[in-house]
Amino acid sequence: MRLISSLVVSLTTAALLVGCSDISSPKENMVELELFSNKAENIATYESMIERFEEQHPNIRINLYAPPDAETLLRTRLVKNDMPDMLAIAGNALYRELVSVDMLVNYEGEPMLDPIQPAYLQTISDLEGSEKKGIHGVPFAANANTMIYNKTKLKELGEDVPKTWDEFIQLLQKAKAVGEIPIYFTFQDSWTTMPAWNSLAGNLQPKQFADKKTNKEVTFQGTHQEVAEKLLQLKDYGHDRMFGIGYNDGNREFSQGKGVFYSQGNWAIPELLKLNPELDLGVFAMPVTNDPTKNKLVSGIDVLFATLKESKHPEEAKQFISFMMEEQQQQQYMEEQSAFSVRKDVISDDPIMEGIQDNFTEGKISSFPDHFYPAGMGAQNMIQEFLYQGNISKLLKDLDREWDQIQLRY
Amino acid sequence: MTIPAVILFFIFHTFPLLQGIFYSFTNWRGYGDWDFIGLSNYVNVFKDMRALNAYGFTFQFAIVSTVLVNIFSLLIALGLNANIKFQKTLRAVYFLPNILSILIVGFIFQFIFTIFLPQFSDALGIQALATNILGSPDYAWVGVVIMAVWQATAFNTILYLAGLQTVPEDVYEAAAIDGASPWKRFWKITFPLIAPFFTINMVLALKTFLMVFDHIIALTGGGPGYATESISVLIYRGGFEGGQFGYQSANAVIYFIVIVALSIIQLRFLQKREVQQ
């Protein structure tokens, strides 16, 4: 007995001595934060930034957690009521839902929002809907819904990047005439129909469409006729097997030189270059109208940071988010991830992205329409079916009906 | 021993079922606040075009697959039960598809439909197979049926084989002496004697195919459009990805009742025509 007690005493003293001499801040003051991320591509980048952050803030530890199929996992954790401290997710329907059930901390008026392009803050407040006030997610990185093109092929055609819809269609016709596949579509995966749909709807639909639609002020049938028509027109410039080929196979084929244009966002570029490093690529925002000043690039928030209200350490979480918004971190992230910064002063100098540089500097940006569609509506499946059958009135009717029905399901 | 068993059964089986029924009367999203909303989830399921579409696809798929699986597995079982060489090896080979994971088989079939068949038919100059059938809303279900039948035949073959073992050898000898043809022997002796196995195979196959999930996730993901969205896939999609936990619980309860009712009707009907031994 005496042996044990003396052992305990000596061990405690030793621990205390170590605690005083070795580490400046004792273990009890260590704050641990869990950061939940929905991207697998940027884990290494995050880790190097977190390391730097922890050096500057020795009492905070950030545990990064980036599982596969993260959105579904996050929803199951919601059910279990076991949420992380911070989220790094996209500005989409899931974010919209989390805000609507009032689970996130409001960052409105914080200085870290100051350097952000107003277009993205607008996107965030649009996402939150008309009922909620505030900025509950801090935009971090943006993506772009582009038309990717094969520079070599466009040069062979002797053409420049089109500025208007008519020019674009003429170019597609010319490509078809010389036996090229004008646009390499990959419609077996339903989501791959969305880049084209989003470019069209993002430019042509009325402002605040989602809110008005929910309030029954507008309908798809009344406002999306032109969107559907133009999408159908683009389909004529696809290829025979577009419904039998999915995203991965499409990346492979396009990187091997099939097709002049590829309707995909900037996220496909690293993949294409991995498959064929020689490929000479460019991007542009699809010109949707015949007035070049009206054609905007559809760009969304690829990553935003948010803190859960339930988190026990909101102050430390805020410190981390402010750190991530600093110029150095922004520069590093954009370089390593070929993403776009949301800061006004950080501009990408990647030559592939040249074609959309102006959209970012001039703020000619509009947000992804489908991020505002109700979760679980499955618009992409309806659009995929529409492209196969070509029935415009059925598509618009279906979209209207599903949207209205989904309001009854909560 | 019975009481712990009853408790375990209740906790892991009955309680979740009751919970599902309970949530079907709420507007719960899977998280956050919820209210009781009475029967309105049930009413809305019947108005839901996507659900009706899913029911249509699932029944079409399940009936066609059940019939095909039973035909193929009975034929294979008869073959494997006959006096052939390598009988045991062949039985093992024919059982293999049942061991493979459906997801893996799905990805293999996806490759066959997307890349192998079109290239093959291009080389032969057959236009009919040149496009991927999984990309067509009209024919994608055929692709799912082909894979499901290929995979499920193994298990039902085993059941039929077990049934064929129960038929006594001497009835065949007697029939042979009377000069009955092989077809007559099958139709008048074998088939009536294995009728209970036919019943159980039909019921099990239909039940499994009505709950089809993995096949679809691996092959088409429910597409193109909603052409191959089965009810299980719809419940999963809507419930987890769409935050419609309460609503899809109602859908699941309805579906549970439908499957139970169908199984009972099928059992009643098929048992009537079994030979009473």
Automatic annotation (TrEMBL), chain A:
Q: Which InterPro entries match?
A: Bact_solute-bd_prot1, SBP
Per the record, the domain of life is: Bacteria
UniProt key word Lipoprotein: yes
**UniProt entry keywords in alphabetical sequence:** Cell membrane, Lipoprotein, Membrane, Palmitate, Signal
**Entries under PANTHER family matching the protein:** ARABINOSE-BINDING PROTEIN-RELATED, POLYGALACTURONAN_RHAMNOGALACTURONAN-BINDING PROTEIN YTCQ
Q: What is this protein called?
A: ABC transporter substrate-binding protein
